Amino acid sequence: MKQIKTVDAVGQVLCHDITQILPGQFKGRKFKKGHVVKEEDIPVLLSLGKDNLYVWEAVEGMIHENDGAIFLKDIAAGENLEFSEIKEGKIDFIAGIDGLLKIDVDTLLKLNSIDDIMMATLHNNFEVKKGTKVAGTRVIPLLIGEEKLEEAKKVVGENKIVSVLPFKPKKVGIVTTGNEIYHKRIVDKFGPVIEGKVGKYNCEIIGQIICPDDKEVIKEAIQKFINKGAELICCTGGMSVDPDDVTPTAIKECGAELVTYGSPILPGAMFLLAYYNEVPIMGIPGCAMYNKTTVFDVILPRLLVNERLNKADIAAYGHGGLCMQCDTCTYPACNFAKI
Asked: Which residues, including other chains, have CB under 8 Å from residue 125's CB and lie 6 or more apart?
Protein backbone atom coordinates (compact mmCIF):
# COMPACT_ATOMS: atom_id res chain seq x y z
CA MET A 1 0.00 0.00 0.00
CA LYS A 2 1.24 3.46 -0.83
CA GLN A 3 -0.15 6.96 -0.61
CA ILE A 4 -0.41 9.10 -3.73
CA LYS A 5 -2.14 12.34 -4.65
CA THR A 6 -5.66 11.80 -5.93
CA VAL A 7 -5.01 13.85 -9.04
CA ASP A 8 -2.26 11.38 -9.95
CA ALA A 9 -4.29 8.24 -9.21
CA VAL A 10 -5.79 7.44 -12.62
CA GLY A 11 -5.17 3.75 -13.37
CA GLN A 12 -4.31 2.89 -9.75
CA VAL A 13 -6.16 0.22 -7.73
CA LEU A 14 -7.87 1.32 -4.51
CA CYS A 15 -6.95 -0.85 -1.56
CA HIS A 16 -9.91 0.17 0.63
CA ASP A 17 -13.56 1.15 0.32
CA ILE A 18 -14.36 4.87 0.28
CA THR A 19 -17.51 6.08 2.04
CA GLN A 20 -19.81 8.88 0.97
CA ILE A 21 -21.96 10.68 3.55
CA LEU A 22 -24.88 12.90 2.51
CA PRO A 23 -26.40 14.17 5.79
CA GLY A 24 -29.96 12.98 6.18
CA GLN A 25 -29.85 11.15 2.85
CA PHE A 26 -27.18 8.52 2.51
CA LYS A 27 -24.18 6.90 4.08
CA GLY A 28 -22.47 4.06 2.29
CA ARG A 29 -19.77 2.87 -0.02
CA LYS A 30 -19.09 5.06 -3.02
CA PHE A 31 -15.97 3.29 -4.29
CA LYS A 32 -15.16 -0.34 -3.63
CA LYS A 33 -11.80 -1.84 -2.78
CA GLY A 34 -10.20 -2.99 -6.03
CA HIS A 35 -11.76 -0.19 -8.06
CA VAL A 36 -9.48 1.12 -10.82
CA VAL A 37 -9.52 4.92 -10.61
CA LYS A 38 -10.80 6.65 -13.75
CA GLU A 39 -10.43 10.27 -14.85
CA GLU A 40 -14.07 11.02 -14.08
CA ASP A 41 -13.61 9.69 -10.52
CA ILE A 42 -11.14 12.40 -9.58
CA PRO A 43 -13.67 15.25 -8.95
CA VAL A 44 -15.89 12.90 -6.96
CA LEU A 45 -13.02 11.70 -4.79
CA LEU A 46 -11.90 15.25 -4.14
CA SER A 47 -15.47 16.20 -3.15
CA LEU A 48 -15.31 13.41 -0.58
CA GLY A 49 -12.27 15.03 0.99
CA LYS A 50 -9.82 12.57 -0.51
CA ASP A 51 -6.84 14.71 -1.55
CA ASN A 52 -4.71 11.57 -1.18
CA LEU A 53 -5.48 7.93 -1.81
CA TYR A 54 -4.02 4.65 -0.65
CA VAL A 55 -3.45 2.39 -3.59
CA TRP A 56 -2.37 -1.19 -3.63
CA GLU A 57 1.24 -2.09 -3.05
CA ALA A 58 1.75 -5.53 -1.55
CA VAL A 59 3.70 -5.67 1.73
CA GLU A 60 5.00 -9.01 2.93
CA GLY A 61 3.44 -10.15 6.20
CA MET A 62 0.54 -7.69 6.05
CA ILE A 63 -3.09 -8.61 5.29
CA HIS A 64 -5.70 -6.27 3.84
CA GLU A 65 -8.75 -5.48 6.03
CA ASN A 66 -11.16 -7.36 3.76
CA ASP A 67 -9.05 -10.50 3.79
CA GLY A 68 -8.66 -10.12 7.55
CA ALA A 69 -12.45 -9.99 7.99
CA ILE A 70 -12.85 -13.16 5.92
CA PHE A 71 -10.21 -14.86 8.06
CA LEU A 72 -12.04 -13.92 11.27
CA LYS A 73 -15.35 -15.07 9.83
CA ASP A 74 -13.89 -18.43 8.88
CA ILE A 75 -12.45 -19.16 12.33
CA ALA A 76 -15.44 -17.88 14.35
CA ALA A 77 -18.54 -18.92 12.40
CA GLY A 78 -20.47 -22.00 13.44
CA GLU A 79 -23.58 -23.53 11.94
CA ASN A 80 -26.66 -22.04 10.28
CA LEU A 81 -25.17 -18.69 9.34
CA GLU A 82 -25.07 -16.61 6.19
CA PHE A 83 -22.83 -13.63 5.51
CA SER A 84 -23.06 -10.17 4.04
CA GLU A 85 -20.92 -8.73 1.33
CA ILE A 86 -17.79 -7.17 2.79
CA LYS A 87 -18.18 -3.39 3.04
CA GLU A 88 -15.50 -1.07 4.35
CA GLY A 89 -13.63 -4.03 5.77
CA LYS A 90 -16.61 -5.39 7.77
CA ILE A 91 -18.59 -8.59 7.32
CA ASP A 92 -21.91 -9.34 9.02
CA PHE A 93 -23.09 -12.73 10.30
CA ILE A 94 -26.77 -13.38 9.52
CA ALA A 95 -29.04 -16.10 10.90
CA GLY A 96 -29.73 -18.69 8.22
CA ILE A 97 -32.68 -20.19 10.14
CA ASP A 98 -35.12 -19.40 12.92
CA GLY A 99 -33.43 -20.59 16.08
CA LEU A 100 -31.47 -19.82 19.24
CA LEU A 101 -28.29 -17.80 18.96
CA LYS A 102 -25.36 -19.32 20.83
CA ILE A 103 -22.31 -17.19 21.59
CA ASP A 104 -19.12 -18.55 23.15
CA VAL A 105 -18.79 -15.54 25.44
CA ASP A 106 -15.43 -16.52 26.95
CA THR A 107 -13.78 -17.02 23.56
CA LEU A 108 -15.35 -13.82 22.25
CA LEU A 109 -13.74 -11.89 25.11
CA LYS A 110 -10.35 -13.41 24.37
CA LEU A 111 -10.67 -12.55 20.69
CA ASN A 112 -11.60 -8.94 21.44
CA SER A 113 -8.61 -8.66 23.77
CA ILE A 114 -6.28 -8.94 20.78
CA ASP A 115 -5.21 -5.56 19.43
CA ASP A 116 -6.59 -4.48 16.02
CA ILE A 117 -9.41 -7.07 16.01
CA MET A 118 -13.09 -6.72 16.90
CA MET A 119 -16.23 -8.81 16.87
CA ALA A 120 -19.64 -7.66 18.14
CA THR A 121 -22.64 -9.97 18.66
CA LEU A 122 -26.16 -10.05 19.97
CA HIS A 123 -26.61 -11.62 23.40
CA ASN A 124 -26.12 -15.33 23.94
CA ASN A 125 -29.40 -17.32 23.93
CA PHE A 126 -31.21 -14.70 21.84
CA GLU A 127 -34.12 -16.04 19.81
CA VAL A 128 -33.58 -15.03 16.20
CA LYS A 129 -35.47 -15.21 12.95
CA LYS A 130 -33.90 -16.13 9.63
CA GLY A 131 -32.28 -12.99 8.24
CA THR A 132 -31.48 -11.41 11.61
CA LYS A 133 -28.02 -9.83 11.79
CA VAL A 134 -26.41 -11.56 14.78
CA ALA A 135 -22.76 -10.46 14.65
CA GLY A 136 -20.20 -8.39 12.80
CA THR A 137 -16.42 -8.48 12.61
CA ARG A 138 -13.51 -6.58 11.11
CA VAL A 139 -9.89 -5.71 11.69
CA ILE A 140 -9.35 -2.13 12.83
CA PRO A 141 -6.47 -0.93 10.60
CA LEU A 142 -6.42 -1.03 6.83
CA LEU A 143 -3.64 -3.63 7.00
CA ILE A 144 -3.04 -6.09 9.82
CA GLY A 145 -0.02 -8.23 10.54
CA GLU A 146 -0.36 -11.94 9.86
CA GLU A 147 0.84 -12.66 13.40
CA LYS A 148 -2.29 -11.01 14.86
CA LEU A 149 -4.54 -13.23 12.80
CA GLU A 150 -2.54 -16.30 13.77
CA GLU A 151 -2.94 -15.28 17.41
CA ALA A 152 -6.70 -15.01 16.85
CA LYS A 153 -6.78 -18.47 15.29
CA LYS A 154 -4.93 -19.90 18.27
CA VAL A 155 -7.28 -18.20 20.74
CA VAL A 156 -10.41 -19.46 19.00
CA GLY A 157 -9.04 -22.95 18.43
CA GLU A 158 -11.78 -25.48 17.69
CA ASN A 159 -14.47 -23.30 19.28
CA LYS A 160 -17.06 -21.58 17.16
CA ILE A 161 -17.98 -18.22 18.60
CA VAL A 162 -21.27 -17.71 16.76
CA SER A 163 -23.88 -20.35 15.88
CA VAL A 164 -27.63 -20.59 15.47
CA LEU A 165 -29.23 -23.79 16.74
CA PRO A 166 -32.56 -24.99 15.34
CA PHE A 167 -35.51 -25.55 17.65
CA LYS A 168 -36.53 -29.20 17.90
CA PRO A 169 -40.26 -29.56 18.56
CA LYS A 170 -41.07 -31.91 21.43
CA LYS A 171 -43.99 -34.00 22.63
CA VAL A 172 -45.28 -32.16 25.69
CA GLY A 173 -47.31 -33.46 28.61
CA ILE A 174 -49.05 -31.02 30.96
CA VAL A 175 -49.67 -31.96 34.60
CA THR A 176 -51.99 -29.45 36.24
CA THR A 177 -52.47 -29.63 40.01
CA GLY A 178 -54.91 -28.04 42.44
CA ASN A 179 -58.01 -29.21 44.30
CA GLU A 180 -59.90 -26.16 43.09
CA ILE A 181 -59.38 -27.21 39.45
CA TYR A 182 -59.71 -30.97 40.04
CA HIS A 183 -63.09 -30.52 41.73
CA LYS A 184 -64.18 -28.05 39.03
CA ARG A 185 -64.56 -25.12 41.41
CA ILE A 186 -62.68 -22.98 38.89
CA VAL A 187 -61.73 -23.39 35.24
CA ASP A 188 -58.08 -24.16 34.45
CA LYS A 189 -56.44 -21.16 32.80
CA PHE A 190 -52.90 -22.54 32.82
CA GLY A 191 -53.25 -25.26 30.18
CA PRO A 192 -54.08 -22.86 27.32
CA VAL A 193 -51.11 -20.65 28.27
CA ILE A 194 -48.71 -23.60 28.07
CA GLU A 195 -50.26 -24.80 24.82
CA GLY A 196 -49.85 -21.36 23.28
CA LYS A 197 -46.23 -20.94 24.32
CA VAL A 198 -44.99 -24.39 23.25
CA GLY A 199 -47.16 -24.24 20.14
CA LYS A 200 -45.08 -21.31 18.93
CA TYR A 201 -42.27 -23.85 18.48
CA ASN A 202 -44.52 -26.46 16.81
CA CYS A 203 -44.48 -28.72 19.85
CA GLU A 204 -47.21 -31.36 20.15
CA ILE A 205 -49.38 -31.52 23.27
CA ILE A 206 -49.91 -35.21 23.96
CA GLY A 207 -52.24 -34.65 26.88
CA GLN A 208 -53.14 -32.78 30.05
CA ILE A 209 -53.79 -34.53 33.34
CA ILE A 210 -55.52 -32.56 36.10
CA CYS A 211 -54.60 -33.75 39.58
CA PRO A 212 -55.72 -32.93 43.12
CA ASP A 213 -53.14 -31.74 45.64
CA ASP A 214 -52.02 -35.30 46.22
CA LYS A 215 -48.35 -36.13 45.88
CA GLU A 216 -48.89 -39.73 44.81
CA VAL A 217 -51.45 -38.81 42.14
CA ILE A 218 -49.09 -36.17 40.71
CA LYS A 219 -46.20 -38.65 40.63
CA GLU A 220 -48.42 -41.14 38.81
CA ALA A 221 -49.40 -38.51 36.22
CA ILE A 222 -45.76 -37.66 35.53
CA GLN A 223 -44.95 -41.34 35.10
CA LYS A 224 -47.87 -41.80 32.70
CA PHE A 225 -46.44 -39.11 30.43
CA ILE A 226 -42.95 -40.64 30.64
CA ASN A 227 -44.40 -44.00 29.58
CA LYS A 228 -46.36 -42.28 26.79
CA GLY A 229 -43.17 -40.87 25.25
CA ALA A 230 -43.31 -37.29 26.48
CA GLU A 231 -40.11 -35.36 25.71
CA LEU A 232 -40.99 -32.42 27.97
CA ILE A 233 -43.31 -32.29 30.97
CA CYS A 234 -44.78 -29.02 32.23
CA CYS A 235 -46.21 -29.08 35.75
CA THR A 236 -48.46 -26.18 36.72
CA GLY A 237 -50.01 -25.26 40.05
CA GLY A 238 -48.88 -25.95 43.59
CA MET A 239 -45.40 -24.45 43.13
CA SER A 240 -45.33 -22.19 46.20
CA VAL A 241 -44.13 -23.03 49.72
CA ASP A 242 -47.63 -23.45 51.18
CA PRO A 243 -47.95 -26.77 53.07
CA ASP A 244 -50.58 -28.07 50.64
CA ASP A 245 -48.49 -27.23 47.56
CA VAL A 246 -46.95 -30.64 46.93
CA THR A 247 -45.99 -30.39 43.24
CA PRO A 248 -42.25 -29.78 43.90
CA THR A 249 -42.10 -32.76 46.26
CA ALA A 250 -43.90 -34.96 43.73
CA ILE A 251 -41.42 -34.03 41.02
CA LYS A 252 -38.46 -34.67 43.28
CA GLU A 253 -39.82 -38.06 44.36
CA CYS A 254 -40.83 -39.34 40.90
CA GLY A 255 -37.26 -40.41 40.13
CA ALA A 256 -36.15 -37.20 38.47
CA GLU A 257 -32.80 -35.50 39.08
CA LEU A 258 -33.44 -32.05 40.56
CA VAL A 259 -31.47 -29.18 39.01
CA THR A 260 -33.06 -26.32 40.93
CA TYR A 261 -36.12 -25.33 42.89
CA GLY A 262 -35.96 -21.56 42.73
CA SER A 263 -34.50 -19.19 40.14
CA PRO A 264 -33.04 -15.65 40.26
CA ILE A 265 -35.57 -14.51 37.67
CA LEU A 266 -38.52 -12.23 38.35
CA PRO A 267 -41.21 -13.09 37.45
CA GLY A 268 -40.41 -16.75 38.08
CA ALA A 269 -38.64 -17.21 41.42
CA MET A 270 -40.54 -20.42 42.27
CA PHE A 271 -39.44 -22.21 39.10
CA LEU A 272 -38.32 -25.84 39.24
CA LEU A 273 -36.25 -27.79 36.74
CA ALA A 274 -35.50 -31.50 36.90
CA TYR A 275 -34.63 -34.26 34.46
CA TYR A 276 -36.10 -37.75 34.29
CA ASN A 277 -33.23 -39.32 32.36
CA GLU A 278 -33.22 -37.05 29.27
CA VAL A 279 -36.74 -35.67 29.74
CA PRO A 280 -36.91 -32.16 31.25
CA ILE A 281 -39.61 -31.56 33.84
CA MET A 282 -40.51 -27.96 34.53
CA GLY A 283 -42.43 -26.80 37.58
CA ILE A 284 -43.93 -23.55 36.29
CA PRO A 285 -44.94 -20.91 38.84
CA GLY A 286 -48.26 -19.11 38.72
CA CYS A 287 -46.75 -15.90 37.32
CA ALA A 288 -46.59 -17.55 33.89
CA MET A 289 -50.40 -17.53 33.80
CA TYR A 290 -50.77 -13.76 33.98
CA ASN A 291 -47.38 -12.21 33.05
CA LYS A 292 -46.55 -11.97 29.36
CA THR A 293 -42.86 -12.89 29.83
CA THR A 294 -41.49 -15.00 32.68
CA VAL A 295 -38.90 -17.61 33.53
CA PHE A 296 -40.82 -20.07 31.33
CA ASP A 297 -40.17 -18.00 28.20
CA VAL A 298 -36.49 -17.72 29.13
CA ILE A 299 -35.80 -21.41 29.79
CA LEU A 300 -38.08 -23.10 27.24
CA PRO A 301 -36.05 -22.16 24.10
CA ARG A 302 -32.89 -23.61 25.61
CA LEU A 303 -34.62 -26.90 26.32
CA LEU A 304 -35.92 -26.96 22.75
CA VAL A 305 -32.37 -26.97 21.35
CA ASN A 306 -31.66 -29.98 23.61
CA GLU A 307 -29.42 -28.07 25.97
CA ARG A 308 -29.14 -29.78 29.36
CA LEU A 309 -29.06 -27.01 31.93
CA ASN A 310 -27.36 -27.14 35.31
CA LYS A 311 -27.60 -25.10 38.50
CA ALA A 312 -24.92 -22.64 37.32
CA ASP A 313 -26.87 -21.99 34.10
CA ILE A 314 -29.89 -20.94 36.14
CA ALA A 315 -27.89 -18.97 38.70
CA ALA A 316 -26.28 -16.90 35.94
CA TYR A 317 -29.64 -15.28 35.19
CA GLY A 318 -29.51 -13.22 38.39
CA HIS A 319 -27.63 -10.45 36.55
CA GLY A 320 -30.35 -9.19 34.22
CA GLY A 321 -33.06 -11.49 35.53
CA LEU A 322 -35.37 -8.67 36.64
CA CYS A 323 -38.13 -7.99 34.11
CA MET A 324 -39.10 -4.31 33.85
CA GLN A 325 -42.67 -5.34 32.93
CA CYS A 326 -42.94 -2.63 30.30
CA ASP A 327 -46.40 -1.59 29.08
CA THR A 328 -45.39 -2.82 25.62
CA CYS A 329 -43.34 -6.01 25.86
CA THR A 330 -40.55 -6.28 23.30
CA TYR A 331 -38.95 -9.48 24.62
CA PRO A 332 -36.56 -10.91 23.48
CA ALA A 333 -35.38 -7.55 22.11
CA CYS A 334 -34.83 -6.10 25.57
CA ASN A 335 -32.46 -6.43 28.54
CA PHE A 336 -34.44 -9.13 30.36
CA ALA A 337 -32.55 -12.35 31.16
CA LYS A 338 -29.64 -11.75 28.80
CA ILE A 339 -26.51 -13.67 29.75
From this structure: 100, 101, 102, 301, 302, 338, 339
